[in-house]
Amino acid sequence: MLFWLTELSDGGDFFNLFRYITFRAGGAFLTALVFGFLFGVPLINVLRRTQGKGQPIRTDGPEGHFVKAGTPTMGGLLIIGALVTSTLLWARLDNPFVWMVLFVTIAYALIGFADDYAKVSKQNTDGVSGKVRLLLGFIIAGVAGFWAAHYHPAELSYNLALPIFKDTLIYMSWLFIPFAMIVIVGSANAVNLTDGLDGLAIMPVMIATSTLGIIAYAVGRVDFTEYLDVHYVPGTGEILVFAAGVVGGGLGFLWYNAPPAAVFMGDTGSLALGGALGAIAVATKHELVLGIVGGLFVVEALSVIIQVLYFKRTGKRVFLMAPIHHHYEKKGWAEPQIVIRFWIISLILAMIGLATLKVR
Question: Residue ranges of the domains in the chain?
């Protein structure tokens, strides 16, 4: 919205700053951060009053989690409110990729909100049916896949770009849409599975979003793509503003989610942020790089899949408990120890993912 202030510029004054994506990304970050600090306490107070007993705690979970009973959930509303407000203020609203990512984020937040509301109101961990959640998630992701393919350059549309391999594209035809759907839905649910300890999910989300935001900025500039030998996707640079909003809103939320958490993000936040990561990857043609940058989320999801399949086949467990962060809890690792070590792993993976921009 503020981008239109450039119309008041003569090219050499303050208003000219709004032409620069990096300036507006900084504005989005600060706006989202201030939003989180301003509305964090009032939102938590409202959630406490309306939810009563707070988020239900799994009876089969780690014993140490029972002390968290009564902690309100749906804190993801703070992150979503911050990033949507900052994006609408600072991003170019004529950019289709910004609206595509916002669409996925808000739609998945609504699914997560319905799931959180069902859990809190019924005071059990069942929530909305998994089949219904998946169906709605795939429909939203399908729309986003078509959206992205429509606005991609003709030479990239319906193609899969491979990291490291220069100028290598695999034409997928209509299969690109199901592939995009799997990327977005898989990302959303992987982040959702990771959100099991205080502060565990939000920092890796911020790290991954920052990384994808940098990638989006790079592939959205023709001079950068020529230097890096990556595919040019016009318009994706504006996604950096959205990414900055996620980081600012995420830091504002982490202030209250740091151990011991005063609020949980719930499915409202985890599904929305995971879906946003998948949508950015699809928009920038870096779907496979998301698997590296978000490698922690991939491992968390795989640990659940492996545990379920192996148990159905043999009646035995591979991990003491899944997702894998609970396995380390069962092994005696302290919660802050797990969280900080997983943050470190996320940062390492992000650096590897960024390296794919130049390793060609």
Answer: 2-355
